[in-house]
UniProtKB/TrEMBL annotation:
<feature type="domain" description="RRM">
    <location>
        <begin position="1"/>
        <end position="79"/>
    </location>
</feature>
<dbReference type="InterPro" id="IPR035979">
    <property type="entry name" value="RBD_domain_sf"/>
</dbReference>
<protein>
    <submittedName>
        <fullName>RNA-binding protein</fullName>
    </submittedName>
</protein>
<dbReference type="InterPro" id="IPR050502">
    <property type="entry name" value="Euk_RNA-bind_prot"/>
</dbReference>
<dbReference type="Pfam" id="PF00076">
    <property type="entry name" value="RRM_1"/>
</dbReference>
<keyword id="KW-0694">RNA-binding</keyword>
<dbReference type="InterPro" id="IPR000504">
    <property type="entry name" value="RRM_dom"/>
</dbReference>
<dbReference type="InterPro" id="IPR012677">
    <property type="entry name" value="Nucleotide-bd_a/b_plait_sf"/>
</dbReference>
Length: 79
């Protein structure tokens, strides 16, 4: 299941995001969306988790949680 993670702190790295979600299950890919000109994070990214039950658990545990002083939002991504 592909998840959209929004409202990330600009300082959050792909590694930080992967570690956060791995606490809830297997993560196959983790991508932050970066500004093409500056290379800085745009504050959102995508995480893919192959197990739907683990992904749904991650959504329920992480949605609206505080990460690096930002209240993140996690939901299934639109394909």
């Amino acid at each position: 299941m592909k998840l959209l993670v929004r409202n990330l702190a600009r300082t959050t790295t792909e590694h930080d995001l992967r570690v956060l979600f791995q606490a809830h299950g297997t993560v196959t890919t983790c991508n932050l969306v970066l500004d093409q000109e500056t290379g800085a994070s745009k504050g959102f990214g995508f995480v893919e988790m192959p197990n739907a039950e683990e992904a749904n658990n991650a959504i329920s545990q992480l949605n609206l949680s505080q990460v690096a002083k930002s209240k993140i939002r996690v939901k299934p991504a639109q394909n």
